[in-house]
Specification:
- It contains 14 helices and eight strands.
- It is α/β, with parallel strands linked by helices.
- It folds into two domains: about 60 residues, EF-hand (Recoverin, domain 1, Orthogonal Bundle), CATH 1.10.238; about 290 residues, Alpha/Beta hydrolase fold, catalytic domain (Rossmann fold, 3-Layer(aba) Sandwich), CATH 3.40.50.1820.
- The chain is globular.
- The N terminus is likely disordered.
Length: about 375
């Protein structure tokens, strides 16, 4: 594969080609934010005993001994694990520019090549559409390892983030979708150089990334137009995999769960979807209703939609488990190929001991689904 040639072609400026090296301070800030968001479960933007396992892991960073770890304390004291990959990876390939932002993807080569063009796993990270990073670790890295061992090219991309703290910033959740769709178009444009088969792409994501993977699976190649130079390169996915991603924003009651003392109000989704302070789909203006429909994966679901595997914990209080049941019922109504797997005892992820099926089984189900669907 002509990875070095491709990077040279894409590095239009020195600043772009040098952007966000793995140990770059900017990239570290993204990883720190991602780790803090993952650990902070109560919505108060600090880590305390109420955050359970996270407090046990990070409580020692409480420098002023006030019973809570602020983001500043966390950022100053946390040690991030080294990013390791036993194989060839081309990092920070520029796939487009949007305003002042240069958007990048990492391309992981097959560790065990197969004959012909490689199938693709296309990963969209989580982080609430306002955080997260394309850097992989943990369960995601295990999926990448298994699939590159089976001849896949695995791609992880960054996309614009909704800056909820900045009301003047114009990025919305829809822009996250547009960027992910443009990333597919970019891969299609360079299909020959990358030696990949764009008829065998499996979209995969967790949490917010699971939502994005659902949208990529159910929507079409012409939907969510973005960069004019990429739009003519039509790319659809053969299948999708969603780990605990939301399925519908039109009904905010889906985000409320009696099993938790935490819920996201409709105001939270308003800031992500519309950048406004309040939100009610039933009474919203037509353009807001349309945007909410577009961002709801179920709205796109049809009998002939690409197949999807959706895995969700039954104790998830961030994206409650009723999203999985809601998706399952919608698929049954239109006879769509959607498989829903509930994980007993799991919260927002597979870290809780004693879950069923266990963590290794969830990863194996994910890998097998991707391989089976990509080879059809």
């Amino acid at each position: 594969m002509y990875w070095k040639l491709l990077v040279c072609l894409l590095a239009i400026s020195a600043s772009a080609s040098q952007a966000l090296e793995t140990d770059d301070p900017c990239n570290r800030r993204i990883r720190v934010n991602n780790a803090f968001v993952k650990g902070e479960t109560t919505g108060d933007w600090k880590l305390s005993e109420a955050d359970g396992e996270s407090w046990g892991k990070y409580g020692s960073l409480d420098a002023n001994q006030d019973g809570a770890v602020s983001f500043e304390e966390f950022s100053s004291g946390v040690e991030l694990p080294a990013l390791k990959w036993d194989g060839k990876v081309t990092r920070n390939v520029v796939y487009k520019r949007a305003g002042s932002e240069t958007l990048l993807m990492d391309i992981y080569e097959p560790r065990q090549p197969t004959d012909g063009k490689a199938p693709v796993l296309y990963y969209t990270h989580g982080g609430g559409w306002s955080g997260g990073s394309k850097e992989i670790s943990g369960d995601i890295q295990r999926v990448f390892e298994h699939l590159t061992d089976r001849g896949f090219v695995c791609v992880s991309l960054m996309y614009r983030l909704v800056k909820m703290w900045n009301p003047k910033d114009t990025v919305r959740m829809r822009d996250c979708v547009v960027d992910c769709r443009d990333g597919l178009r970019f891969l299609k444009k360079h299909e020959h150089e990358l030696n990949i088969d764009m008829t065998r792409v499996v979209a995969f994501g967790s949490s917010a990334g699971g939502h994005l993977a659902q949208l990529l699976t159910f929507s079409g190649a012409d939907d969510f137009p973005g960069d004019d130079t990429l739009h003519s390169h039509k790319a659809e996915v053969a299948a999708g995999i969603s780990w605990f991603g939301p399925s519908d924003f039109r009904d905010t009651s889906l985000f409320e769960w009696s099993g938790s003392n935490k819920k996201f109000s409709s105001d939270h989704w308003a800031r992500l979807i519309t950048k406004s302070k309040t939100f009610d789909y039933e009474t919203a203006e037509p353009d807001v209703r349309r945007m909410t429909e577009e961002l709801s994966p179920i709205w796109w679901l049809r009998k002939d939609s690409a197949p999807l595997l959706h895995i969700h914990g039954d104790k998830d209080f961030v994206i409650p488990p009723q999203h999985a049941e809601h998706l399952k019922k919608a698929a049954e109504r239109c006879d769509a190929d959607v498989t829903v797997q509930m994980v007993t005892g799991a919260g927002h992820g597979w870290w809780t001991p004693g879950i069923e099926p266990d963590r290794s089984t969830v990863i194996r189900m994910t890998v097998n689904f991707a391989q089976t669907r990509a080879l059809r």
